[in-house]
Amino acid sequence: MKICDENRCSGCCACLNICPTGAISMIENEYGSTVPKVDMKRCIACNACIGRCPNNKITEKKRSDYAYAVWSKNDEDIALSSSGGAATVFSRYILKNGGVVFGAAVIDNTVKHIRIDSESEIGKLRGSKYVQSQIGEVYRFVKKEVIDGRFVLFIGTPCQISGLKNYLGKYYANLVTIDLICHGTPPLKYLLEYISSIIGKKSSWSRVTFRGEKDYYLTILNDKQVIYQCKADEDLYFQAFLTGLTYRESCYQCQYACPDRVSDITIGDFWGLDKSKLKHLYTGKVSLVLLNSENGRDFFERCKENFIWERRDISEALNPKQGNLLHPSAKHGDREKFMTCYSKIGFKRAVKQTRIGRQIRNERIKKILRKNNLEFIYHIIRYFK
């Protein structure tokens, strides 16, 4: 049974959550992307999965009239967050008022959506993950919370918001949805393979970060101990992500990479902001906030006393530097080569076969040569090992 074209599937899990008999599971295809599989022995042909799939049932979209430049009044929020701490401020408001928050976290050596209900857990949701989080049956838990009358915040990629809304099938005033301006999502398997290749399959790790306190570094930690750290321009995984080599196939034709948004609020880095024109003198990280619905505008009004914020013309947000508000990410020129190699030799070696691998190798060699010592031989041997 075919729910949608596999190349258009975002892995949002709306189908898995809506299935009344549990006939749908998510499996990895040969390229590591999670896609639905239907157990025809349990399927009752109700077609709920087909009817609620965002590729078959378009989710309503709305456009913000203005852009907002915001940053938290709490310096720690900014230091530990990817941009101006908007997600943390919104989450804290919900939790202080007895609500619950659903968002992506690194848990048990994987990345998945979890539920938190206390301020002490906010740290689990901080930071960009640069990978697709596992949704599992989280939409069902969201539905239970909103039906029970809890104040609920759901933070995710636009396709995950679309999946949630299609699953719910109706509006809930006590649910606020926030989507992240998304470049694209590599399959989780790529990150897990890469970490294993860096630290060894038997080594333990508990957290991985890309942004925040150590910005634009891939950092792998075990508790508080750093076991690997590398600058974005020198790390294979990071460069493969930033250059559009490793996203899901659906990301390159993403229906959500446009000014019309599926969520109540859209957040991300405010790339292209002219800080010299801000009324508040500020040179730090700034979040872009778009208020796409009445529900989103009402929620921002409740939270804005915790921000320093300024309203900006929407054109400032819809600039070429904010590309994924205008169009999907472009494929890297070596995308097909990577995909062909990946199924044969795995993630790290496949990236090394592309121009990204050659570029990083050449830069490392130049860097080591500049040291003018025998470390050159050691690192070359280690790289090709």
Describe the structure concisely for a colleague.
The chain is α+β, with helices and mostly antiparallel strands. The protein has helices spanning 14-18, 48-52, 75-80, 86-96, 138-147, 158-168, 188-199, 236-242, 294-303, 314-317, 335-345, 347-352, 355-371, 375-384, and strands at 24-28, 34-38, 66-72, 100-107, 110-116, 152-156, 175-180, 207-209, 217-222, 225-231, 265-269, 287-291, 307-313.
Verbal overview:
With 385 residues, the chain is α+β, with helices and mostly antiparallel strands. The protein is 32% helix and 20% strand. The chain has helices at 14-18, 48-52, 75-80, 86-96, 138-147, 158-168, 188-199, 236-242, 294-303, 314-317, 335-345, 347-352, 355-371, 375-384, and strands spanning 24-28, 34-38, 66-72, 100-107, 110-116, 152-156, 175-180, 207-209, 217-222, 225-231, 265-269, 287-291, 307-313. The strands form three sheets. Strands 5-4-6-7-11-12-3-13 form an eight-stranded mixed β-sheet, with helices on both faces. It has a three-stranded antiparallel β-sheet with strand order 8-9-10, with helices on one face. It has a two-stranded antiparallel sheet with strand order 1-2. α6 links the parallel β6 and β7 (175-180). The model has no long low-confidence stretch (mean pLDDT 93).
- Low-pLDDT parts are none
Mean pLDDT: 93
Major beta sheet, specifics? 8 strands, mixed
Q: Strand sequence of the main sheet, in spatial order?
A: 5-4-6-7-11-12-3-13
Overall geometry comes to globular
Q: How would you name the oligomeric state of the polypeptide chains in this document?
A: single chain
- What's the order of the H and E elements? HEEHEHHEEHEHEHEEEHEEHEHHHHH
Helix content: 25-40%
Strand fraction equals 15-25%
User: What is the alpha-carbon Rg in Å?
Assistant: 21 Å
- How many helical elements? 14
How many β-strand runs? 13
Please identify the structural class as seen in this structure. Answer: alpha+beta
Head-to-tail CA distance between termini: 44 Å
